[in-house]
C-alpha cells in the first residue's frame, strides 16, 4: 500500500478507507500502520487537514505497540506536515527526532528520508549552506545503498536548493535526474512533483513558454484526480507564470482559482503578493492594498519565514503601491528597507563562503565515490593473490590522485568564473548593463561621506514619458528595446566620470560629480534633445518617437542625507511631468 500511495495517492486512500474497520478490529499493530499509510497518502496530495486527523488517530495505537519503526514514521510525517504548514521550527524538531529514532533502531531508509526533508526545510529558511550539507550526505549514502527512491528525492531537493539560489540550469538538471529515478520506480505522484519543479525553475529563469509547457504536462499527469486540492499546484504554477509574463488579465482569474483551492498557506501568501502586483499594474490600488494586507497577515502567522526572500518582497510591493499613491517619501523609505534586507540575504546566498562550500561538497562527493569504488574493488579481489591486490590498489590510488588534481583545477577555474560573474551581477542591471539601484545609492552615500569638494555634485532622475503606452501598444520587448536605447544614449552623452544607473522600470539616476550647475544642465539638455530627435526602431521594424522628463538637484550643502537629495530631484521630476513632460526642472540643495 505504501508503493500504491506513491503511484496514485487517491486510489490508495480509497482502498485504505475500505480497510478501516478491518484494521481497527485486528488490533493496534494493524491500526497504527493503517493510519500512517493513510496520512502519508493524504500528505502527498496536500490534504493537510485530513493528514493531521490521521496522525492524531495513529498516536494512541503507536503508544500501545511501542513499535520503533512506527514511531519514526510518525515523527517523519509530523515534520512533513509542519513543513507544509510553514511551521519550520516545528518541522526541524520533528525531523531531527525522526533521525535520532531511526539511528537508534538501524532504520537507514527512514533516517535518510528524514534528512532529505530536513534539507528542504533549511532551504525554505534560505539557509542554503546547511541545506546543501544535509542533502549532500543523505544523497551519498542513498547512492551507496542503491536506494533509488531516496537518491531521486535528494536530487529533487537539490533542484529546489539551486532554484532558490538562482542557479536555474543546475536546478533543472537535478530535477531531470530525480524525474528519471521516479519514472524508473513508476512513482507517478513523485514524477509529477519533479515536473512541477522543472516548470518552476523555468519560470524563475524567465523561460515562460517552457514553464507553461511543463506546468501543462504536470496538469495532464493529474487529470485523473477527482480531488480539487490535488490540483492546487497546477493552478498556482500557471497563475504565477501568467503574472510573470505581465498577462494580468489571464493571471488574476487563475490566482482566484488557486486561492479558493486547498493548498499550503505560504504558497497562498505568494499568490496574494502576485495579485497585488497585478492590481497595481491595472491601477486598482484599493484591491492591491487588500491583497498585500492578506499576504502580510499570512506571514505574521509564519514567523519562521520572517526576513526571507518570500517575506521581504512585501516591502517592495508596498513601496510600489506608495509610489502609485504619490507618497514618495514612504516609497523611498520602504525601498531602502527592502534593499538593506535583500542585500543581507544575497550576501549570505552568494557569498564566497557558500560558493567555496558548494565546491567542497562536490569535491567530497567525487572523493567518496572514488573511495567507494576502491572498497568495492578490494572486496571483489579478496581471493586474489596479495601482490595483485597491492598493485591494483596502487593503480587505483594513482588514478584517484590524478582525478582529484583535475577536479581541483576544474573547480578552481569554475570558482574564479563564478566569483567574477557574481561580482558583476551584484552591481549591474541585467537589461541595460548600467549600474543597478543598490550600487548607485551606495555610491551616493559614499560621496556624501567624503570631503566638501566631493559633495559638490548634481543628481538627475530621468523617466521615459508615456512608457506604459509603449508597452501596451507594442509589447514589452519593444519597451525593453527603448530602455536599452536610452541607456546607451545616456552613456554616450554624459561624461566618462559620471555615474549612470537604472533604478527601476523606465527610471534612471545619474550622478555628476564635481560639476557647476550650469554645465550640468547644458549636458542634460543635450541628452533631452538627443532623445527627442532620435527615431527609435522597435524589434518589429516600426519606428517611434520617445521623450524623457528629468528632475535635477544640485547639491552644495554640507550634509550627508541621500534621502533628502533624492526626494528633491524626484520633486523636480514631478514638476517636469506635470508641466507637460519632455522637459527639465531643477532645484538646489543648499545649506541653511
TrEMBL record:
Transmembrane annotation, as ranges: 396-415
CDD domains hit by this protein: GGDEF
Known cofactor(s): Mg(2+)
Origin superkingdom: Bacteria
Alphabetically ordered keywords of this record: Membrane, Nucleotidyltransferase, Transferase, Transmembrane, Transmembrane helix
UniProt catalytic activity: 2 GTP = 3',3'-c-di-GMP + 2 diphosphate
Listed EC numbers: 2.7.7.65
GGDEF domain: residues covered: 455-589
Main EC class the enzyme belongs to: transferase
GO molecular function: diguanylate cyclase activity
Pfam families, per the entry: GGDEF (PF00990), TPR_12 (PF13424)
Ligase is among the record's keywords: no
Key word Membrane present: yes
NCBIfam families according to UniProt: GGDEF
The protein's name in its UniProt record: diguanylate cyclase
Protein source organism: Dasania phycosphaerae
